[in-house]
Structures are given as structure tokens and as C-alpha cells.
Amino acid sequence: MAKVIFSALVERMSGSHGKGGTVSSQWKGINVLKRHPSPRQPRTETQQKIRGIMNTLAGQWYGLSSTVKDLWNKYASLLPAPLTGMNAYLKLNANLYRYLSSSDVISAPPPTPSTPEPCGTLSVVATDSVTNTLTWVTPSAATDYVIADFSFMAGRDDRAHPRWGYAAGASASALTMTHTHAYPVDTIMSYRVRVMDAYGRMSPFSERIDVTVA
Length: 214
Prior knowledge:
single chain; alpha+beta; Immunoglobulin-like; 3 domains; 3-stranded antiparallel β-sheet; 10 strands; flat
């Protein structure tokens, strides 16, 4: 057990000391020195799924030719966010892999760094006690995919810190999708959607729309 003696020059310590070492802090006015906690890998089903997708895509990246990698590096240099070619490859293909399938993964980058237009004229209605129906006017191309997230309010308004989860997805050409849930009557559910194109590029989110379970 370590013993620390403070002096007139050093009255308190705080923060971590070395990678994987110790952490100094105060608890109820007492100086405390404890072991730095080791970070744990998230274990939820969704997190493990995404981690598996990223590992698969990383392996595929290293199998690309140098010419194709150069194309991805050039594409990444045109984006507003500072990304490497590999980062851009993983980001776009993770969207395609997660929401569509592994067969929709692209090897070459998009021809331009543009993004799809957001979903227009979105509406949500409570079809029945376990189903909400989302409809939109644009986009309507079969090559686009509309992805819906949902949140809900449990006794208080969650607008300051909403917790969004995946609700449903459908081809944009369908102009409608349904979300089946198990929340009780009078629960306020919120939805937002975004559009993904055939390259895995995402549009901004739509405005949030609330619906009450009927």
C-alpha cells in the first residue's frame, strides 16, 4: 500500500499518473490514491455487431489494390471532416453493411463527396396500439434507403437528452414504413429519419416528429 505525505509545496494531487497507473482525487476532503480502472469493451448486442462489421471491413480494406486505396485517399481529402481513405471506406461501408447487407459493400469510393437530400414532408401516425406508420414524399428513388430512429418519453420530456434507437428502414420508393413496438397507450414516441444512398452516404436528420400511442 502506498503512502503519500503532502507538504507546504504540494497540498493535493489530482488526475492520472501514467498509462494504466494510478489516479489521485479527493473524496469528502480526503486525498485518495487508487488504481486506474481498465476500460471495458462494450458488450451489448448492437455494439458487438458493429464491432464485428468494422473488423470485417478493415480486413477487406487491406485486400484492396494500391490504386483503389489511392482513390479512397483522394475522396477523403475532399471531405470537410479530416478522414483518411481507410476511415472513409469504413464509414460508408459500415452504413451499407449494417442497414442493407454485406453484398452492398462498395470497393471504390463515390464519384463526388456530396450527400443525399434529407427526407421531405415526413409524417407519423399511430396506426394502432402496437404500430406506428411513417410516410414521406421525397425521396422516391429505389436506389435510396430511408432509415428511422425512435425515442420515447417516460414521464418527462426527453428533448434535452433523447436516447435514439433504430426503428425501421425501407426503400425510399416505398414512401412508407411501419414500426412495431410494445409501449403502452399514451406513451409519447418520437421519430427522426435520414436518407442513405447506394454509396452509404447519409443525409442530415429530418425534424423530430412526436406521436402518442393510441
